[in-house]
C-alpha cells in the first residue's frame, strides 16, 4: 500500500483479553479492515459443533467484538471507515460443502448493515467487500484440475479468478474520502459472477 503509517498486525482474535489489550494500545485510527478469516469445507452431514464454533469464532464473532471494542474505547475517529471482508458465498451457494463458510459471511453482511446504521451518528462508515474466487493460498486453486478450473471459470464473465489487488483497490476506495457518502454497502468484486 502506498503512503506511510499503515500497519499489519498479527493477533489471535479469539482471545478476548488479547484483543482488548491490542485495542487499548491503539491510537485513534481513521480506518480498519477486518480481514481475518478461515475456510471450512464440509458437507452438512459431517459438520460437528466444534467445526462450526471454530469458523464462527474467527469469521463472525471476532469482527463483531473488535468493532465493539474500537467503538467503546473511542478508537475510531469521526469520518473514519471500517471495511469487513465478506464473500459472494454469503449471498450465493457457490459449492457443495460450503455451508459453514457461507453462514459466517451472510452474518458479517448482516452485522455490517446494522453497524452502519448504529455508527453513522458517530461519523463512522461501515461497508463490506464481497469477493468472488481470489487466487490466494486459502483457496488452494492449485489443487484444481485444469478441467475443474475451466468449468468454474465459466461462471465468471471475465473468465478469470480475482487477484488480491483486485480486492485491495475496492478496500482502498471504501477507506478513502472518495466513498465519504457510502455506508452499509456490499461491494461485490467478483468478475461478474453474481450477474
UniProtKB/TrEMBL annotation:
Pfam families: adh_short_C2 (PF13561)
GO molecular function: oxidoreductase activity, acting on the CH-OH group of donors, NAD or NADP as acceptor
Domain of life: Bacteria
Keyword terms: Oxidoreductase
Family: Belongs to the short-chain dehydrogenases/reductases (SDR) family.
UniProt cross-references to PANTHER family, sorted A to Z: 3-OXOACYL-[ACYL-CARRIER-PROTEIN] REDUCTASE FABG, SHORT-CHAIN DEHYDROGENASES/REDUCTASES FAMILY MEMBER
Protein's UniProt name: Short chain dehydrogenase family protein
Species this chain originates from: Bacteroides fragilis str. 3988T(B)14
